[in-house]
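Practice problem: predict the structure.
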Amino acid sequence: MSLAGKKTLYICYFWIREPLVQTQVIPYLRELTKAGVEVTLLTFEAAGDRFTGAEAETERQRLAAIGIEWQSLTYHKRPSVPATFYDIVVGAIRVRRLINERKLDVIHCRVHVPTVMGALGRMLSRRRPKLLFDIRGFFPEEYTDAGVWKADGFLFKTAKLIERWLLRTSDGFVVLTERARDILFPESRHSGLDGLERPVEVIPCCVDISRFAGRDDEASKIRASLRTGDRRMIVYVGALGGWYLTDDMVRLFAEARAVDPGIFVTILTKKDQEAVRELLRGAGFSDGDFYVSAVPPSELPAYLEASDIGVSLIKACYSKQSSSPTKIAEYLAAGVTVISNKGVGDVDATLAQDGIGVLLEDLTPVAMRKGVERALEMAGQRQIRRELAASSFDLENVGGERYRRLYARLLGE
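Answer:
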């Protein structure tokens, strides 16, 4: 489909160096440019995390080369509520200016705070571009589930009030899971439209499947560098703590070692590396039994290709029904058997398919041990998982295609 000449502003309340922006936001925007959409990306750059000087100009030129104009504002963190309010006001003023200068057709807002900016900026302008609320997660509930806000507190109630306004004023919506769609827009399951005839798309966190092909030689070199020999490898990718059940994950690794004493643990994370090493040592692992480090995104596919089992344990709560863990899409793209807990997004349905992975009944030692045994039995069936990743989580043919379809419906093309 062609959307040539259509202009969109994508608002993201993160900085350009944030891995999520580099691996999720920019690839999706590139998919929109393939249909001819002219994209402006507005980010909020945090002190200490921003590109400066020549680095910023290099990034600006790189994005311009793929059809994305990058603009930025300063991100303010403290004090939390006043800082966010200030950013919203400044963001709304920039949005208004861009609406008038660029003659925008769509304001595409990633989660709640940017959507407030987009809605206010549009209110301040005479033009009425379409407002796309890319909801992603259940933001207010995430803060209460995490214990940051009280469920009956002022901040939660205010956030829900604003959310209801955004749901009324937006022209189209994106959610990450079918479960989230059924909660927010159940009437859209068959028609793709909500009760007011506004388009709704379910777009899970996708990955570039091509990055995970032909990595056998690199995987062999990684195994050689780690001196794993023919040991089975169990891997975890991503952040630790918070929503991610780090202690339970380490207990799962211990149960995996009970099933296979030669198991080798790989944890690829940027923060808290020494803390997790200590947890592994406390669980009886020697330093020769694990590898904990951060790796560049370009090397991640090879590390997963070298692995047999991928783990994803996330706190199961109301807000996580809207969650689509990118790590699971990455594991499947590499053909890795997945072990996960229940109650997270659409993971239950995904892992219920034959040969894909193991859904733990609970997080008891018995359930974990049985889960590892089952995962090891199916570890060799890599192709079936690659095929599922290609059909369900491919950046171009799933994520990109659905975003292009949503834009076409939103603009009446």
